Amino acid sequence: MSKIVLTVVTAWSCLLMSPVICHAGDTTPAAQQAKWSEAAGRAGISTQGEVFFNSKHGGQWSCSSCHGAPAVNDGKHASTGKTIKPLSPVANPDAFTDTAKIDKWFRRNCKDVLSRECSDAEKADVLAYLLNIKR
Question: 26-132: which CATH architecture?
Answer without folding.
Answer: Orthogonal Bundle (1.10)
